[in-house]
Design goal:
- The two termini are 33 Å apart.
- This protein folds into 2 domains: 238 residues, Glutamine Phosphoribosylpyrophosphate, subunit 1, domain 1; 177 residues, Rossmann fold.
- The protein is α+β, with helices and mostly antiparallel strands.
- A hairpin with a 4-residue loop joins strand 7 and strand 8.
- 31% of the residues lie in helices and 23% in strands.
């Protein structure tokens, strides 16, 4: 994204593989992380288990930047591996916060990969530090690792330690954990973040999204249930169902924006959910227009849905430069504007002298939307009617996105009409809150919509999690 605060950013993608016979898991981990790259583009890593000895390679950068051909050839093979790609929502951007986290202790080594955010991480960290724990990073994933380690000393087995830790940690977490002999997947009781299981023959794999299974030729088996722990060993696969049933709360932004459109999450197609969002937009916010276009990438499906429902022709209105990564971020406003133009350009033949409906997934700060509207007008669009396939983002998210305050939320400080004026639109429309529950046909989960409604499924932290962690370290420096 051109400006780190112009779009929401999800935290992480996780992956794990257990090979029942033989070795050769590095290639699968690499290709799975490549398929999950959209979930995290700051750092990545792979930990490999070779007969109980766990080694880890990780660094800041994209999957292709960190795992060069030379780096992959130097990695030791094994029968198990876990992988992670990260976009940091808690903790600063540095190699120490890259995952997997590798912990060595008297009960044996453990590699942990985490997607989500804890709401009680600061309190747990303080308790652990008072007990002698020494932290090397600022992410709450390290709090999970230490909590599991602490519980393992008390309980003995790694799976019992994970189950015991789940009674202590609160908030959002999808975990893939590797011990010397086992691979474990766990999902928080609310199921905030996705996690699924697949098979390659007799081998078992876990991933944040089903698209990663497709990338390595694995067959989708099922989603990990909210609150469930699944353990894979040489003896086979064992499931520990949730001890207590609570209403599930999958983040609705998985279907609106975060997940890849070819993924299926908790029984519902992401692609179809986005097309339905566009259809609801057309019903609630109709307009006389000549063409419907989508802002790449996650606005495309919603634009198709809007066009189908409205009867207005769909057209390709933007071309995205696919060779500019997230590192293309400039600090000055003028440079940011240039970055938008380099990354996204209008197709003048589609929009010239036309009344255009521009469909995007969401709006955070508003600057990117203003630039894209301006680009369309410069390309000759007669009118630009903007539609967002998400409701207005009004409240902080504490469960795995990078918006933990209202400071940069345009909708928290302006009316919808004012937002339209700010971004230069002839009209503006948002998806309704009620429509969010109707997007994912066949979904087995309810949805968290707290960022739109302010109704949090679990109690949020009392202060900013970033402030807690990052000032915590600076005060001790």
């Amino acid at each position: 994204m051109m400006d780190m605060m112009n779009k929401l950013h999800e935290e992480c993608g996780v992956f794990g593989i257990f090979r029942q016979a033989g070795e050769g898991v590095v290639a699968e981990a690499y290709h799975a992380l490549y398929a999950l790259q959209h979930r995290g583009q700051e750092s990545c890593g792979i930990a490999v288990n070779n007969d109980g000895v766990i080694t880890c390679y990780k660094d800041v950068g994209l999957v292709t930047e960190v795992f060069t051909r030379d780096a992959l050839e130097k990695m030791e093979e094994g029968s198990m591996a876990v992988g992670h790609c990260r976009y940091g929502t808690t903790g600063t951007k540095n190699r120490n916060n890259a995952q997997p986290l590798l912990i060595n202790h008297l009960k044996g080594a453990m590699a942990l990969c985490h997607n989500g955010n804890l709401t009680n991480a600061a309190e747990l960290r303080e308790q652990l530090e008072l007990g002698g724990a020494i932290f090397h990073a600022t992410s709450d994933s390290e709090v999970i690792a230490y909590t599991i380690t602490q519980q393992r000393i008390r309980t003995g087995s790694i799976e019992e330690a994970v189950r015991a830790a789940m009674k202590v940690i609160q908030g959002a977490y999808s975990l893939v954990i590797m011990s010397p002999t086992k691979l474990i997947a766990a999902r928080d009781p609310r199921g905030f973040r996705p996690l699924c299981m697949g098979k390659i023959g007799e081998d078992t794999v876990f991933a944040s999204e089903s698209c990663a299974l497709d990338a390595i030729g694995a067959t989708f088996v099922r989603d990990i249930l909210p609150g469930e722990v699944v353990v894979v060993s040489k003896e086979g696969v064992r499931s520990y169902p949730p001890e207590e049933q609570v209403p599930s709360s999958l983040c609705v932004f998985e279907h609106i924006y975060f997940a890849r459109p070819d993924s299926v999450i908790d029984g519902a197609s992401v692609h179809e959910a986005r097309v339905r969002a566009g259809a609801f937009l057309a019903l609630d916010h109709p307009v006389q227009a000549d063409v419907v276009i989508g802002v790449p990438d996650s606005g495309i499906e919603a634009a198709i849905g809007y066009a189908r429902q409205s009867g207005i022709p769909y057209g390709i209105g933007f071309i995205k430069n696919k060779y500019i990564g997230r590192t293309f971020i400039q600090p000055e406003q003028k440079q940011r504007q240039n970055a938008v133009r380099i990354k996204l350009n209008a197709v003048a033949a589609t929009v010239r002298d036309k009344r255009v409906v521009m469909v995007d997934d969401s709006i955070v700060r508003g600057t990117t939307s203003a630039h894209t509207v301006a680009i369309l007008r410069e390309a000759g669009a007669k009118e630009v009617h903007v539609r967002f396939s998400a409701p207005p983002f009004l409240y902080p998210c504490y469960f795995g996105t990078d918006i933990d305050s209202t400071d940069n939320l345009i909708a928290a400080h302006h009316t919808i009409e004012e937002i339209g004026q700010i971004i230069g639109a002839d009209s503006i429309g948002f998806l309704s809150l009620e429509a969010c529950d109707k997007l994912a046909v066949g979904s087995r989960c309810g949805f968290c919509k707290a960022c739109f409604s302010g109704e949090y499924p679990v109690e949020p932290p009392k202060t900013s999690r970033k402030l807690k962690f990052e000032t915590h370290l600076s005060e001790k420096a």
